[in-house]
Amino acid sequence: MAKECYYCGFKDPMPFTCKFCGKSFCYNHRLPESHNCTGLALLKERVHEGGISYPYPKEPVSRRTRENVPGKLMTALSVIKSNYSLTILVIAIVSFFLQGIPGYFTYFALSPSDMIYQPLKFAINLITHIFLHGSPMHIIFNMMFLFFFGPELERRIGGKKFLIVFFLSGIIAAIGYSSWSIFVLKSSTPAVGASGALFGIFACLAILAPYIQVYIFFIPMKITHALVLFAVVDLLFLGGTTSGLITQDIVARSAHLSGAVAGLVMGKKIKESGRYQR
Fold it and tell me: I need a labelling partner for 8 at 20 to 30 A (CA). Which of 23, 144, 251, 271 fits?
């Protein structure tokens, strides 16, 4: 079951219990030195005063009990509910299967022309388009990206700030894509997917933890270098693809760049405030 870290308050789906003080802590503060363990300090005093040769408390031997299916299901639900990254991932997967319903995809997709002709629908689709995907490979790639980088950012800034970064990046990415499509490309190709929001997460994480190493086509590089590489590729192909007399931004590179800029700005603000786990 997920528990709040006694030190920082983060709801970790797999908390650690300190064997010295008995409190629950997240991954970052699981070590006694990381949470200024009072139990360890008392133990050291007793060792020093009494000359105890065994410095660590002996753990009782207990038999592992098998957890039944409902218990495992409840544990899984608890993990998902306590981690906003996983919650978003599950919603996106469910939404992908609902796309088989007639009219579902069309209504919730982001159409740039709606910004002028149907502003209310456009405002709704600024969020709903994030949970739609055009193909199985599209959602697999995006959800893998979210699975690996989402929890890393959420662990550092907390769930509420993570949601702000994710959705604000997605909204700004959608506005950037729509503006670019209408006023530059003169096109109104609908857009779906969480790519803009995920680029915001990636950029924010690159600001807060630039030492993280990632692998791009099995080549190791720093997360900051990977972000620059993605940005350069998007800039090179930002002109779009010409189909007949219409130029389209099929890959929504303008959304990627807009989301990345939003993530960079929010990451810088969070870093200046100092309210994140280093």
Answer: 144
Task: Indicate the residue among 29, 49, 77 that finishes a domain.
Answer: 77
Chain-centre distance of CA 144, in angstroms?
10
Both 88 and 73 in a single domain? Answer: no
SS3 245: coil
Res 27: pLDDT: 73
Give pTM, 2 decimals.
Answer: 0.74
- Predicted confidence at residue 90, as pLDDT, reads 95
Q: How far apart are CA 198 and CA 148, in angstroms?
A: 11
Residues of the domain holding 28? 1-77
* Domain shared by 97 and 174, yes or no: yes
In the chain the first and final C-alpha atoms are separated, in Å, by 25
Contact 256, 199 (CB under 8 A): yes
Domain boundary among the residues 77, 100, 133 is at 77
Same structural domain, 41 and 97: no
Query: Which residues make Cβ contacts (< 8 Å) with residue 185, sequence separation at least 6?
Result: 240, 247, 248, 249
Distance CA 161, CA 163 (A): 5
Q: Count of alpha carbons within 13 Å of 259, Cβ hemisphere only?
A: 32
Q: Is 108 helix (H, G, I), strand (E, B) or coil?
A: helix
| Shared-domain flag, residues 89 and 60 | no
